[in-house]
Amino acid sequence: MIRDETQWLALSDAFHTAALGGAPWYAALQDLARATGSTHGELIGIGANASVPFNIVTDIDPAFHPAFEQVRGGDPELNPRVKAGMHAPVLKTLAESDFITPEEYRVHPHYREFAQQWNIPYICLTTLERGEDNLIGLAVVRTRDQGHITPDERRVFSSIAPHVRAAVRTHSALRGQTEAVLSGTMEALSIPAFICDRYGRVVKLTPSAEKLVCASANGLSLRLGRLCAAIPIDAKSLGDAIERAAGPRSVGGTLLATVLVRKAEEDHSPLVLDVIALPARQLDLNPCARVLIAVRGGEGGNQRRAAILQSLYGMTAAEVDIAMHLCAGKTPEAIACNRGVSIGTVRAQIKALLAKAGLSRQLELVARINQF
User: What element of type H or E holds 258?
Assistant: First the structure.
């Protein structure tokens, strides 16, 4: 139990520290359970169709979570606790006696076949956030020996709940800023990039990426909020890669696939898409950034390479243009014709740009540029 204001402030600070990423939510929930004389602290997210995007329960057997999913514990029609949270006002504190009678409790399948078996027969809960078909709930869960929560313990829970709600809202706001910063960084690097949520829907894209999908000749388009490839086999590869990256078992920061998107079956200059899993967050109720798709090739990629050649090697605009033509497979003769200069001038410029790059052969230059 909390005995003085210092302990209460420490508990409140623990949740705000978790919201800022300075400590795990698990530790703060453990402190809340102890402060209310309970065994388990819980922070749960119930999404559309009774899905459970997250359910942090402290000090419980890991087998609890698959068992909870198996009995569809997030379904308000099957779980009276979830139903109570769905209908109660935000921040209203509830215990079993507030939403189910002793007679109903004894015969209800959720208690008889699940809660009693896991020795979590009593709860004190509140709803922190609720949308049209989702909620985030806070609870402390108690064993048979602990029994119903006492009035003093309930007052502790009620006093800390508004601070947990503020912490959850802070966490969500920072999540949105992270997506905006990521998108802005990719655009500053002239990289066409798409950010997708866990359902594969594009939630943000850079201006250069928007330009890319608006040009129908690229083989890549945006339909109903999803990236689509013109060639069926490319479309399947892209869809599979996004699904893997968005999945719960993906490791954040990992390049999971490189996918080619062509304009036609015989196309030899496809777009190259790197599909990267973004770090998952502990609290992930709303669709948020789960997948980064960066495009190599196309105008954005050439702009990035040109900027690197100029800044890294000090090449002139003419030298950069010639280097990019060489990278595209053009011969010195074709480059000279395209630029309206003599072949001797082009050869001299190639020699100069190779010297600036510290290379001796054109093939080495092409390989170097393709790394950018």
Answer: strand 255-261
Residue 112 DSSP symbol: I
Tens of pLDDT along 207-266?
Answer: 888 888 886 667 889 888 899 998 899 999 999 999 888 876 655 456 678 888 888 766
User: Which CATH number among 3.40.50.1260, 1.10.630.10, 2.60.40.10, 1.10.10.10 corresponds to the domain 301-370?
Assistant: 1.10.10.10
State how far the Cα of 204 lies from the Cα of 216, in Å rounded to an integer.
20
What is the Cα–Cα distance from 115 to 329, expressed in whole angstroms? 68
Fold assignment, 189-295: Beta-Lactamase (3.30.450)
Q: Indicate whether this model's pTM tops 0.85.
A: no
Residue 129 three-state SS? strand
Closest Cα partner for 285 from 88, 122, 48?
48
For residue 271, give every residue at least 6 positions away whose Cβ sits within 8 Å of its Cβ, in sequence order, or none.
212, 218, 219, 220, 260, 261, 262, 295, 296, 297, 298
